[in-house]
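Format notes (please read before filing issues)

Several people have asked whether sequences and structure tokens are stored in separate files. They are not. Every record keeps both together, in the order shown below: the sequence lines, then the token lines. Line labels are part of the format and must not be stripped during preprocessing.
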Amino acid sequence: MITSMILARLASWRRYRQTFRELEALNDRELADLGLGRRDIRAVARQASH
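Then the structure lines:
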């Protein structure tokens, strides 16, 4: 039970980091095309990880 909880949290953290890295790599124009600004990256990555 605890192991599955730890694995789920690890998977969530990995999804967060992957999404964050991918969005962070975009330039401002590409982010704007998605309707995002740099300030939105953390929130979008957090939402994608849950």
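For reference, the curators noted about this record: The CA atoms of residues 4 and 10 lie 10 Å apart. The helical segments are 2-25, 28-33, 41-48.
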